Amino acid sequence: MAVSDAVGGSGGRGSGGPWRNWAGNVSARPARTVAPASTQELVAAVRSAAEDGLTVKVVGTGHSFTSVAATDGLLIRPERLCGVRDIDRDAGAVTVAAGTPLHHLNRTLAAHGLSLTNMGDIMEQTVSGATATGTHGTGRESASLATQITALELVTADGSVLRCSAEQNADVFAAARLGLGALGVVTELTFAVEPEFLLTAREEPMPFDEVTDRFEELATENEHFEFYWFPHTGNCNTKRNNRSQGPATPPGKVSGWIEDELLSNGVFQAACAIGRAVPATVPAVAKLASRALSARTYTDIPYKVFTSPRRVRFVEMEYALPRAAAIGALHELKALVDRSDFKVSFPVEVRCAPSDNIALSTASGRDTVYIAVHMYRGTSHGAYFAATERIMTAHGGRPHWGKLHTRDAEYLSGVYPRFGEFTAVRDRLDPGRLFGNAYLRRVLGE
User: Fold this and answer.
1) In this predicted model, what pLDDT tens digit does every residue of 14-46 receive, in sequence order?
2) Spatial separation of the C-alpha atoms in residues 415 and 134, rounded to whole Å
């Protein structure tokens, strides 16, 4: 079934203006910017940039904290490559233009009684930006957004348009589902979808020692388990999402607003601002914040349970660890914070993922637990992140591609068994590094 509900604004070709990411920690000034409305227009832009000696990068909504999309060449804005193009209910598939925001995809699927199987915790990113950098949620059996891709269209450095799937250009497909923008420009993605279902979310405070002691039990018994530890405290907030027969019982408008907007955004924003101005207040504020969120249970359609509004801006580092190492690493992190002078106002987020078969997926070939640390935007984060990174890399951690880290190709080739497979595809598709930038030179090598 064709679906013609494309969204997006005006675009076209113009001189480059400054660009800044969501967190405000990365900026770029491209030589020119273009917003193509079709694959053909995009091909023309790529060829023109190559002729003029400009590198090419695509930027979505800027939710990556790294400079993965930064360029001083041609910046492609995908907002006009937008909309759900086809829904095949019988095949359980939806084809969507690369610049479509996840919130638009989710709401369109819901209108047709369909859903993605799993998703991350926000839905502001474009589908191509989210998958290219490995956006994930938490799941016992269901994995990242990229694992749900069944086909894609890719414009390569010579202007060719490749259709890729497990049956067509399979080697490219194996790499390009999570391609870091290094292989070309993704213009279209096909995702596996399923009939819409209900999830019951159970959110509950739990002591740090209890949740870490029971981690294997909680992660095994629940389809989607995650928790947040509040530094400077022994307190956590847990979330268990499981499929439900219903009925739907969404949070009440008032109670939902109090939890998701007032406490998680409004009051938290104020607390972070106070902590940035007077760091000595952070531990006391953390103790109050960790007790503010109460237990609650609600049932709703998937995207309304998986995702939440995130209006407080921050910078983030996240590492994917072998599952067996994760809780030990988290205890090391807690001991680090307890003995240090760090003042950490943001909770540490812990999520799970099963092993998958994508070359550069952070869960490639191993069951994975993610540990994410955050700091409020404008707060000094370097020492805390560096100390955290030392713990994570000691356990063979893999950094999230879109979040802050200092790892390079030498390190990454040692923790990704299929690293060479990816770089070989890159060498074939983009030998001149048309789609390169400083970040890719660091993490993938020359």
Assistant:
1) 556 899 999 999 999 999 999 999 999 999 999
2) 16
Query: 78 phi and psi, to 5 degrees?
Result: -95, 15
For residue 103, count other CB atoms closer than 10 A to its CB. Answer: 14
Return the SS3 of 162.
strand
Exposure string of 161-200, with b = 16+ CB inside 10 Å and e = fewer, is bbebeeeebeebbbbbbbbbbbbbbbbbbbbebeebebbb
Q: How far is residue 109's CA from residue 174's CA, in Å, rounded to a whole number?
A: 26
Label each residue of 290-310 as H, E or C: HHHCCCEEEEECHHHHHCCCC
* Cβ contact 134:370 at 8 Å: no
CA-to-CA separations, 387 to 328, 343, 347, in angstroms, rounded: 15, 13, 16
pTM of this prediction? 0.93
Q: How many CA atoms lie within 13 A of 324 on its CB side?
A: 2
- Between CA 71 and CA 27 the distance in angstroms is 9
Please tell me the distance from the alpha carbon of residue 257 to that of residue 275, in angstroms, as a whole number. 24
Per-residue pLDDT tens digits for 93-105: 999 999 999 999 9
Say if residues 360 and 413 touch (Cβ distance below 8 Å).
no
